[in-house]
Design brief:
The complex is a heterodimer of chains A (240) and B (244). Chain A is built from nine helices and no strands. With 240 residues, chain A is an all-alpha fold. Chain A starts with a helix and ends in an 11-residue tail after the last helix. Chain B has two domains: 155 residues, P-loop containing nucleotide triphosphate hydrolases (Rossmann fold, 3-Layer(aba) Sandwich), CATH 3.40.50.300; 63 residues, no CATH class. Helices cover 34% and strands 25% of the residues of chain B. Chain B contains eight helices and ten strands. In chain B, the strands form two sheets. Chain B has a six-stranded mixed sheet, sandwiched between helices. In chain B, strands 2-1-4-5 form a four-stranded antiparallel sheet, with helices on one face. In chain B, a hairpin with a 2-residue loop joins strand 4 and strand 5. In chain B, 49% of the residues are buried. Classes of the chains: A mainly alpha (240), B alpha/beta (244). At the A-B interface, helix 1, helix 3, helix 4 and helix 9 of A face helix 1, helix 2, strand 6, helix 3 and helix 5 of B.
Chain lengths: 240, 244
């Protein structure tokens, strides 16, 4: 109960800041549009029957890039003001920090997906099955993003307590999230090919998500405090 | 009444960053109802020591004790009675001053810890008129006041302040000195670092000099030193270290 209350409080603080600035939402949405435009130009001429191979890649590659951007910005707020350390000293469960950060990142990633998926459906006729099975598509996108965020939040937090480590996030994040993205890609392809076992993929994705979320929450404290231990205490920019 | 977390003790604390030994077997004791100042040149290891004492940094060697018992990690209930103001204000720039305090008060409430009402704390720190302003628009001095307000709103047993007088104007320094005296009288154990000689001599009961990774000297205010002259002289002698 205490954990849920702390998650709620931290998430509300995140939402309040994001609603005021719309910084991460607008950046992610704009980046999603750019990704769609790039895929339209580069893959628009691919024959419809071959698009079943390209659309899943376009979708999850976009999620990977938008996700890295989102996670970077979500934790940049903490880095700029060093507020993460204040939470660590305060009476706040570290797992609450993990879930609040993962939740805000997931919300933004899902908003970006709300731009990405319709965009891909409009541009690629081969993506039509996603429109024909909207609930399956929505569930698949949500589950895929949960897995991505579960892994991404863990490592973004670990790098947020240092300074100038944004570049490391992409280097670490993409290799570590590749297995999740590959699994999502296979599920998406099963949907587009109307594979008879497509529905089973959702259950598997949910199981993988559960494992990743539990692992992320379990490893969060060692990664966070361990990262603080590996570097000198922050003494950078003092304020405004 | 809940027993105090003090004394806070550090025994044989050592820390290394790469090949550089920042702290070498540092011993320190902070009792309830006393203010201890920590001086040292830039890079002497003051912030590192504070990070270890607050649990932000695991020490390579040594032991931390609270109320006589060693601890590796603090429970949330105990952390609610422990406050730290870092060199940076650590406030949410996208929240107002009141929202910053309300957030921490609400988080403290989840562990059953009481917190002074945000409006009262803001008034105490001279921020009543800025309560609804975004913290991102604050000057450095206002941000420092807000950080101090957040730390002191919970009436902590142990208070660790890393250069708290930084960026404060004369009025702010006087205000903080008065509040620290109140906290000491209440029984709070306070450890602070500062490069402000005058303020440190004014508020502290003891001043420790951290040099070369060890506590190299100590000046203590004595009961018979009514006008504080001896304490000032002893501290000035210590001060020659940081200025080198």
């Amino acid at each position: 109960m205490r954990l849920l209350r702390q998650i709620r409080l931290l998430l509300l603080a995140e939402l309040r800041q994001e609603v005021r600035s719309l910084e991460v939402v607008l950046t992610s949405a704009f980046f999603s549009v750019v990704m769609i435009a790039l895929f339209a130009v580069s893959l628009g001429a691919v024959p419809s029957d071959a698009q079943v191979m390209t659309v899943p890649g376009a979708l999850w590659l976009s999620v990977a890039f938008v996700g890295a951007l989102t996670l970077t910005r979500v934790f940049d707020r903490e880095r700029e003001a060093d507020t993460l350390r204040a939470l660590l000293v305060g009476p706040v469960d570290r797992v609450a920090i993990y879930f609040a950060k993962a939740a805000i990142a997931l919300m933004i990633l899902l908003l970006a997906s709300a731009v990405l998926v319709p965009g891909l459906i409009v541009i690629f006729p081969g993506a039509a099955p996603m429109a024909e099975r909207p609930l399956f598509t929505a569930a698949m996108v949500v589950l895929g993003c949960v897995g991505y965020v579960a892994v991404g939040t863990l490592f973004a937090a670990g790098l947020a307590t240092g300074s100038g480590k944004n570049v490391l996030l992409s280097l670490i994040l993409h290799p570590l999230t590749t297995p999740v993205l590959m699994f999502n890609l296979v599920a998406t392809r099963a949907l587009l090919e109307a594979h008879p076992g497509a529905d089973a993929y959702l259950g598997r994705m949910a199981a993988v998500d559960l494992v990743l979320v539990v692992l992320g929450a379990w490893l969060f404290e060692p990664v966070l405090v361990g990262s603080g231990g590996g570097s000198k205490p922050a003494r950078g920019r003092a304020g405004r | 009444m809940t027993p105090s977390l003090a004394p806070l003790e550090a025994r044989g604390i050592s820390q290394r960053f790469g090949r550089k030994r920042v702290l070498k077997k540092v011993d320190l004791r902070l009792d309830a109802g006393e203010i201890v100042g920590l001086v040292g040149a830039n890079g002497a290891g003051k912030t590192t020591l504070f990070s270890i004492l607050t649990g932000l940094l695991p020490a390579d060697e040594g032991e931390r004790r609270l109320a006589g018992a060693p601890f590796d990690d603090l429970s949330l209930e105990r952390r609610a009675r422990f406050a730290y103001v870092a060199h940076r204000p650590q406030i949410y720039l996208g929240l107002s001053a009141r929202e910053n305090l309300d957030l921490y008060a609400s988080l403290r409430a989840t562990v059953g810890a009481e917190t002074e009402a945000s409006a009262a704390v803001l008034a105490r720190f001279g921020l009543a008129d800025a309560a609804e302003l975004m913290a991102g628009t604050f000057s450095r001095g206002m941000a420092q006041r807000l950080a101090l307000a957040r730390a002191l709103a919970g009436r902590p047993d142990i208070l660790i302040l890393d250069e708290p007088f930084t960026a404060l104007d004369r009025q702010g320094r006087d205000l903080l000195a008065g509040i620290l005296a109140e906290e000491r009288a209440r029984g709070s154990a306070i450890l602070l670092s500062s490069h402000d000689h005058d303020m440190l001599v004014r508020v502290a009961d003891r001043i420790l000099h951290l040099e070369g990774g060890v506590i190299a000297g100590e000046a203590r205010r004595r009961d018979d030193d009514v006008d504080g002259r001896r304490f000032r002289e002893e501290t000035a002698a210590l001060w020659a270290g940081p200025q080198r």
